[in-house]
Amino acid sequence: MPVPPPPEQFNERVRMRKQTALPRFTRTLLASALMLAFAPAWAQEASSTQAAEAPPAQTAPSGDKDMASVVVLGSRGAARTALDASAPVGLISAKDMQMAGPLELGKLMQTLDPSFNFSSTFISDGTDIIRPATLRSLGPDQLLVLVNGKRRHQQALVNVQQTIGRGSAGTDINAIPMSAIQRIEVLRDGAAAQYGSDAIAGVINIVLKQQTSETQLSGTVGGTSEGGGELYSGSANKGWAIGDGGYVNLTVEGRHRGETNRAGLDTARVDPPRVTQRIGDSLAKDKYFWWNAALPAGEGAEFYSFGGISHRTGDSAGFFRTAGDGRNVPSVYPNGFLPNIRTTVKDQSLALGYRRDLADQWKFDVSLNHGRSELDFHEKETINISYWYEPKPGGGIYAQSPLEADTGKLKFRQTTVNADLRGPLNIGGREISFATGFEYRRDGYAIDAGDPVSYQYGRTNNPAIQIRDQLGGIAASGTQGFPGYTPATAVDDSRHNIALYADLEHKLTSELLLGAAVRWEKYSDFGSTTTGKLSLRYDPSKVVGLRSTVSTGFRAPGVQQKFYSSVSTNLNAAGVLTETLTAREGSAVTKAFGIPNLKQETAKNASVGIVLRPASNFSLTADLWGIDIDDRIVFSSNIAPESGPCATLAACPIKAILDPLKVGQAQFFTNAIDTETRGLDIVAEHTTRWPGSTLVLSGQLDFNRTKVAGRHSDSPVLSGAQLFDDAQVTLIERGQPRQHHVLSADYTTGAWNGNLRANYYGEVQGQGFTAPFIQTWDAKWIFDATLRYNFSKTASVTVGSNNIFNTFPTKWDPVKAAPFPQLGFTYCWETCPFGINGRSWYARVDVAL
Description:
Elements: H1 27-43, E1 70-71, E2 80-81, E3 89-93, H2 94-98, H3 105-112, E4 116-118, E5 133-135, E6 143-147, E7 150-151, E8 181-187, H4 192-195, E9 202-208, E10 215-224, E11 231-242, E12 246-257, E13 283-296, E14 301-317, E15 340-357, E16 363-380, H5 385-389, E17 405-427, E18 430-448, E19 491-507, E20 512-523, E21 527-538, E22 544-555, H6 559-563, E23 566-571, E24 577-583, H7 588-593, E25 601-615, E26 618-635, H8 653-658, E27 663-690, E28 693-711, H9 720-723, H10 726-734, E29 739-749, E30 752-761, E31 764-766, E32 775-777, E33 780-792, E34 795-802, E35 840-848
Parallel strand pairs: 6-9, 24-27
Antiparallel strand pairs: 1-2, 3-8, 4-5, 6-7, 8-9, 10-11, 10-35, 11-12, 12-13, 13-14, 14-15, 15-16, 16-17, 17-18, 18-19, 19-20, 20-21, 21-22, 22-25, 23-24, 25-26, 26-27, 27-28, 28-29, 29-30, 30-33, 31-32, 33-34, 34-35
């Protein structure tokens, strides 16, 4: 459900607060963290010029200091500062975004917010262009994203490769241009009872610009010291005032990001050795048009609209095929070939609404919000081997195949209708903030088949015909690199749900604030669920505040998880051409294995925290939190038939199921695991002021740990460990950093502003490609520096460098991780928290007219 819109007069200049966690930590660790957080305060004298209510780093212009850190996320009661909220809320201001280097929203948030992860991916099909965004080390689909307080639709892509977020479809956060954003609020607390499904890890609310005073122009160039990654970006934001309090704000932005390739020499497949892979960021070209508008409709009323159109293209690669590989035709590619995957991401959203003030401080808001996400696949530098070597009537082979093809489309659509009412209730002389509302949502998912050549086995697609490749083996079907979606996997289906909610907040005394929320939802496919939340805020003095929340949560299975499937034809262990299937729920394969239809995940969230304001220019928060999730929806391990001889069918139950269905191996979505996540977040900020100068020091310490508490299976054939093997457990537990810390110093004097920032990423592990060996990528510090000069109030130049010490992830173990290092895989793959580009630089010009 949407949150109340922020008042127009709020001036958002805030430092964000960070969150994540550690399940158990020693007294020594806690003491050390507190000492680190307090250090800036002990090193500096307190200043008396800062309002006590607001974090020191967020001073507002004169006359507006108390509004500097006001937040609306997490409560439907009166807006309050972030430090006065009942749950941890972080904020990222426009200045924060300007003084950080990344131009992609996901990378920028990861740089500024240690609870947010945006892992780099490559050779991962569509995940190369739509990377997984997560909060508090959970899944991408356990994070709810709002824009102007309204639910943002999810992406069409399902992450089915061995990456962070495997088996999920989250929100494509890079579909939103940074130049359209005024501020970002991050609620690090379970909020399903307040905002609905997906809000298990927390909620991100992106607030769009409303400014009408100027035309903001920005241009950026950049690159990397190791080569590639050239960056060109330009944006314009313009606002116009309409009537009394109305506005139209428009944003256009374009960006070009060149590819990077950090692959090493391929010493295993080619002689003499050379680089055969593309391992790094894909080539990306992004275009955006967004708007935010409100039209006055009488006293205390307005019509509003916001949304945007985004069009992004990606150019990435698959695995290299050698000249002598059975998947190559030497007469076409005499030196082998590297399949080229072209992706196009189309994203549209439109919100229309009406809000008005009623009598006695009551407010009403009704809205319609529609969003669409589409991912188109096109394969180049490819070939269909079975087309080329298919026997020709009368003798010989066809010796023909297209070298590129459309391989299919994924489409997601969502329509949401909200009606919300909020205001004060007077019960027994006590005023209670009350909110209630209704929501209707319809989610739809579609898969369009690719061109026939992209998936067929020969022109007739008849497995009974023997087609031999250059090595005499059965020829592979479909295009190399990314086989197309077939008509058998094409789908266009939907589901709907309705929800009712109630939210209460009451200040029992001047020191004690209590809150409660309850939400009931009913889905057309799996029934109804009810969740609740209780929150408490106690301030015994102006120096100390205590806060705590406890809630239940849920996440409905995404329509992407319910309806996604794919089929490719490959050889099974016996050398027979059979289908490899990603099976949707209710299919013949899932029924044969006894895998039930997906049901909702259920969660329990709890947090307890302390807020300290020992001086007007210093604040510290520490929050402990825990999230237990039962029946978590995951993508299963690869289920393949038993190897070796089978004396009886009972001795090989998987083979007995798959062979009659002509399926060589299978994967599917299932409620297979329970997880426990624990965390600790410590945030400290200190400001020192001198005449004409300001120094802001901040430390944000994030500890977290996720444990797979149980693996279970409803299948009479598959155990929990078979359904979700050790490699997938490692990806869940160790794929995201258990520690992520951000330390920064921001100094302003006169026209100059300098910023130094250090990000610490804890070690990560993976074994998806090397099992049973577990590869460890060590913890690393990444340092960034930015310098800005303001020629005037309307013009500035900024130069900066990210990863100034050119730090790279740990290299693959050359022996235990073989053969990947020998194939050119120098650094990480299935999990790469900060990427493999090395040092980057940029220069930006900002002008306001």
